[in-house]
Amino acid sequence: MTVDELKPIIEAILFATADEPIPFKRIAEILPEEPEAAVREALEALSVDYDARAGGIELRQIAGGYRFSTRAEYSEYIRRFRKQQPSAKLSMAALETLAVIAYKQPVTIPEILEIRGVSSSSAIKTLLDKRLIVAKGRKKVVGRPMMYGTSKEFLIQFGINDLTELPNLEDFEDLVTS
Amino acid sequence: MTVDELKPIIEAILFATADEPIPFKRIAEILPEEPEAAVREALEALSVDYDARAGGIELRQIAGGYRFSTRAEYSEYIRRFRKQQPSAKLSMAALETLAVIAYKQPVTIPEILEIRGVSSSSAIKTLLDKRLIVAKGRKKVVGRPMMYGTSKEFLIQFGINDLTELPNLEDFEDLVTS
Amino acid sequence: MSERKEPIDTAADTAVAEAPPEGGRGDYRVHLDAFDGPLDLLLYLIRKEEVSIYDIPIARITQQYLEYLRLMEELDIAVAGEFLVMAATLIHIKTKMLLPRDPFAEAEGEEIDDPRQELVDRLLEHQRYRTAADFLYQRRILEGEVFTRPVPEDEKSNAEVSAGVFDLLTAFRDAMLRAQALAEIEIARDEVTLSQKLDEVRALLELNPTINVRDLFERAGSRRELVITFLAVLELVKELKVRIHQSEAFGEIEMTRRDPEPESLEATSDDEPSMNEQNGANPNE
User: Are residues B33 and A80 in contact, defined by beta-carbon separation less than 8 angstroms?
Assistant: First the structure.
């Protein structure tokens, strides 16, 4: 292969590999028919290309390997981007807490603890931060604990019109038992 | 900022956000001072750049967002490198059910049965487990059955930007009768 | 018939459609298991007989269809209800085709309904979806050749899922099942006997000279334990080990240890009396 043919192969490999730097030897192993010198030449040409483009990415030699990374001057934008959190993505603990609240609302923290068997305070905080749940007044029992329920944002993010549209156990059994 | 100044910022953001397609809106939000038209122009220019380079990577529009991915022709090398198996295949029953859901959504289990002539519950369960379909509320008919539609994951796994990209069902007729 | 579990393979599909069933019995089973519903079987028969889908020789196809059903039964393949419904439909169409056409309707130039029309429409629609499924299959294969940047390991360990309503239901069901399992363990643990309960209350009295009786009852994990607790309290009263008192009407009911032994009276005299005086102000024994 020519250097120009090797370049996109190496680029694709480095792009699709996780964050750790890839040693030259491992790249060469993927292309056993090619002379090592040619592979090295292609790698260096690729690096020069990225420098010449002066884009958002660079190909760096680091810790004995090669790795793509974003250029330091754009880190502020990436940080800003990562701070946005408009998604309904949830940890499993938060998802389960949300599920208990959705199906048992209005429900208090001690009641959620009773069902889940583990403390759910931090999950509840996450759900409040994401505006998926809201406080629904206090329960008239000893200690007057706060009750929680799902929000309008919850309906929007889960794509349903009202709580009656939540699937119930029969909907689930319809799927499993046939 | 000029388009040439915006390009590397967008490139860095898309690169740093790994495998998730990023909707245009979220990119524009990072750059509130810039007119949306300029951001879009930069995105398109970036995409054109990558096409012109014909390297190992391309910038694609998928599931309503933008995402960098490797070009299909280099998959063999990446697979060799990652020692990774291709994703699990779907059964014909699951694919057919998925096709009915994709074209008829939102659609209920009885409606799918009507079209396929065979119970599809276990296929629907498989598709839900694989996150290729999602519940889309209940149909306002007797029994209020659950409706199903395709998910964002469906678009991603099948390389589709939005549902209008699906070929017309009627276009398949030629294949049927010939 | 159960849904096919093997991965779709277009080559294999053609094999299903074209391979003559005149092979060994094993071949039959392979082919028959492959039919994903009655519409699939009908389309196969139409292709095998090389007849037009728009002009199905209904008597011939019906006969073939019924033969296949018989074969499936012979081979112990469960014939799903849908196959039988289709058999009935085919026979119904066949009968209608045999009836003489209404000459008046024909004379008046009215459109004559072909009894096969509805079936043909369903078959065509089914075919289109099969082709659409093939299209999706190809798309997924193509997309499998494309790689994205993997999520870094440190983000993976704190992975978040984008959940749908069925994920909520599953999570809720899991939590409830877990809670139920826990409750069962607790009930099993709480199957105490009266003598165990007596020991337990005596031990409590060793630590606290005065016990709130309602607290004691509320600790009961089951109705049965509640009854046993009540019996234990009665037993202690009968044995003159405790004194029961209520400081005001509808107030808290308390149980105070009686210490008849002189040595223990001595030992506790410093801290006990004040308590006894307080509680004894309005004895309600």
Answer: no
pLDDT at C49 exceeding the cut of 50: yes
- Per-residue pLDDT for C41 more than 80? yes
Q: State the Cα torsion B177-B178-C1-C4 to the nearest 10°.
A: -130
Q: Answer yes or no: is pLDDT of C223 > 90.
A: no
Separation of alpha carbons A58 and A50, rounded Å: 6
Look at residue C257 and give its three-state secondary structure: strand
Chain A contact for C105 (CB, 8 A cutoff): no
Radius of gyration of chain C (CA): 40
Which of the pair, C186 or B27, is modelled with greater confidence?
B27
Per-residue model confidence as pLDDT tens digits over B116-155 = 988 888 899 999 989 999 988 899 998 889 999 999 999 9
B43 pLDDT band (50/70/90 cuts)? very high
Residue for token digits 């810790």?
Answer: A63
A residues 46..85 contacting B (CB < 8 A): 54-57, 68, 70-71, 74, 77-78, 80-82, 84
Task: Give A133's contacts (C-beta < 8 A, 6+ positions apart).
Answer: A98, A101, A124, A127, A148, A149, A150, A151, A154
Q: Which three-class secondary structure state does DSSP give residue B144?
A: coil
Q: Which two tokens stand for residue B119?
A: 């119970």
Residues of B in contact with A175 (CB under 8 A): 121-122, 124-125, 128
Q: Would an 8 Å CB–CB cutoff place C150 in contact with chain A?
A: yes
Closest C-alpha among B94, B91, B139, B151 to residue B121: B94
Q: What number is the ipTM of this complex? A: 0.79
B139 to chain A: closest CA residue:
A165
More confident residue, C158 or C241: C241
The token pair at B159 is 């390389």
C-alpha span between C69 and C119 (Å, rounded) = 19
Q: Coil, helix or strand for A149?
A: strand
Mean pLDDT across the stretch B105-123?
Answer: 90
- Torsion angles phi and psi, residue C211, rounded to 5: -125, 135
User: Could you tell me the sign of the dihedral formed by the alpha carbons of C52, C53, C55, C57, in that order?
Assistant: positive
Contacts of B96 in chain C (CB under 8 A): 36, 129-130, 133
Residues 6+ apart with CB under 8 A from C109: none
Tokens 């059994």 belong to residue: A173
Q: Is the model's pLDDT at C272 over the cut of 60? A: no
- In tens, the pLDDT along A106-159 reads 999 999 998 888 888 889 999 998 899 999 999 998 889 999 999 998 988 888
A37 touches chain B (CB under 8 A): no
The whole-angstrom separation of Cα B165 and Cα B64 is 11
Sign for the pseudo-dihedral over CA of B103, B108, B110, B113: positive
Listed as own residue / partner, the contacts of B126-133 with beta carbons closer than 8 Å and 24 or more positions apart are B126/B90, B126/B91, B126/B94, B127/B94, B127/B97, B127/B98, B127/B101, B128/A175, B128/C164, B128/C166, B130/B90, B131/C164, B132/B98, B132/B157, B133/B98, B133/B101
